[in-house]
């Protein structure tokens, strides 16, 4: 095949390609996602909309998306977050710092000291997720160890028996699915809502 | 249950699920590409666009059709982004800048899904659905077509004709990717992945703060993003984002999806060449590499021999609580062993040697088990090299599946294998030697070199994952990574199609006692070793300066 005929062939092919793309864009780019959106709307509307959580008619967040509890001692605290200024759902993301980066090492040491003082625990006992940011910056969970670490402080601030707080933690704790998938975890928003619910 | 046992059971469940699908899906795909019958919807498409589905193409015509289709995709995706502000469902987001729009168009058309942008802050729903997700389907279908064309190179003789690109593209899309994506998306929706057209909901947090909870057609995109080994996240945090990957079941399901087609294609290969054990041999070599990589990365992340993680006792920076270390290692090795590049944890915060292994996994050419189509044709190219090396050892003309591997075939194989390293090392050297591009680096020291090396490894291998500390949204990186993606994709594709044409024009040679058997453990071992040696010799110096210097 000569070069010119290849080029001419290429132009014919390009026209066919454009028509192909038009047809497939309608099918794959509109029909496919919109049909599934319709399906989701009918079958699982609450989850498809992002598992929004309401209290007294106001949206207070999503069960799937973590939020900051701003150092309020009466609430369980979430993990550190690199999403925007912290837990900004419009800026999800990680710190991307290397574990050998001196800045991260210094930050971690500072956080350990701060968290230990805040929760009134030995710095050696601080849970890893209390001082390390998640990948999404929107992690809705903390480990059961980090939750346990915060129980005494929350109970003291709210003037509750630690056993009461601990039982709420247990209610918000999910184990491994089928016993082996994923990791045990505590949903922080759900737990804090339950705590607020005690006072109503 | 101990963590290690739980992690092993998770891997076991994944392998069992893949094993269950292996024969039916692999055989089905073989049927799709050999069937004489067109579906009614396919006939409608051929009529609407004016294609003769019976027109058998020589490799050059096949390649020209493929390139023309990719150029059209590139132009449309670029235009959609540049005109975003004037289109519906833009969520008020502005037009995308020219260099970023070029980079993103190149990225999605090449099945890379490198993202120099943040999804929730840059792309409205229309660009996501009608632009990015469409290429998630079509770029995977292109990869599938090339793999099938190469297989035809082995199965056909005295012709040089490889089939019809438009038919292969249509069938791959309509009969393989779309039905699987619908099933996968339904499953993801039921597992809690969001799917809506919301422009965002305002929330007032418990402490009086403010959050905007974003929305979007996420599940439909997530399904094809994993199935098509694309990897482009709807959101910046990709599959670490709880809206893309809400729980451990969705997590394992997404790993399953991204491995599914590449794994089952080895069965398709076996069926089409009339000897399923050939397919098992290729799969075994892929599996050996995957298992070695998984064991190594998992062990390193669990032991976390690094300064920051020694202080706190676990490698959890950049990882999600619900997924944990084993689930993150499993995803990371699978996403870099395919051309997916989706992430559920951030590779830059892996222990340096673990991150280095993820780079090596891409440097192997992504063949464990590789992207949709690309994994199979990549492994077959390495198989030809392996047979050639073995042939040199015993002094015989090498042959594979009844086709002689002459100077022409070996030249094409050598060029295919050399393209990617040339792009990676060349562009990395260029970026590191210029002051401007160096300013994009986040972490100082060897990790900074790793960030740049990772970016070009990811680009030229059409992976799309990142050491995301690098601020890659600059004209320099957008253009050079865009070129790395385009050349890393289409140069090997054209060479592989030329190889297929060359094989298909041959007269088959009969098997003799001197023919190297290509389906036993000996061949599997040699193939895996050759894969490691080629990449090892190529990338060891660069990896020594980056991850090894940092981690050891």
Shape call of chain A = elongated
Give me the strand/helix succession of chain B. Answer: HHEHHHHEHEEHHHHHHHEEHHHHH
Tell me the fraction of residues in β-strands of chain A, as a range.
5-15%
* Mean pLDDT across all amino acids of chain A: 95
Alpha plus pi helix count of chain A: 6
What percent strand of chain B?
under 5%
Radius of gyration of chain B, taken over Cα atoms and rounded to an integer in Å = 23 Å
Give the strand order of the largest sheet of chain A, numbering strands 1, 2, ... along the chain: 3-5-4
Assembly of the depicted chains: heterodimer
End-to-end CA span of chain B:
32 Å
Calculate the mean pLDDT score of chain B and round it: 96
Q: Order of strands across the widest beta sheet of chain B?
A: 1-2
- Return the structural class of chain A: mainly alpha
Radius of gyration of chain A: 25 Å
Main attributes?
heterodimer; A: 200 residues; mainly alpha; 3-stranded antiparallel sheet; two-stranded antiparallel ribbon; 6 helices; 5 strands; elongated; B: 552 residues; two-stranded antiparallel sheet; 19 helices; globular
Overview of the molecule:
- Chain A: This is Potassium-transporting ATPase KdpC subunit.
- Chain A: Belongs to the KdpC family.
- Chain A: It is a single-pass membrane protein.
- The complex is a heterodimer of chains A (200) and B (552).
- Chain A is mostly helical.
- Chain A has 6 helices and 5 strands, in the order ααββαβααββα.
- Chain A has 2 domains: 3-47; 51-198, no CATH class.
- Chain A has helices spanning 3-43, 45-48, 102-119, 144-158, 162-171, 188-198; strands spanning 52-55, 58-62, 141-142, 173-174, 185-187.
- In chain A, the strands form 2 sheets. In chain A, strands 3-5-4 form a 3-stranded antiparallel beta sheet.
- In chain A, β1 (52-55) and β2 form a beta hairpin.
- In chain A, α4 packs across α5.
- The radius of gyration of chain A is 25 Å and the shape is elongated.
- Chain B is mostly helical and 552 residues long.
- Chain B has a two-stranded antiparallel ribbon.
- The two termini of chain B are 32 Å apart.
- The chains are: A mainly alpha (200), B mainly alpha (552).
- Chains A and B meet through α1, β2, α3, β3 and α6 of A and α1, α2, α3, α6 and α7 of B.
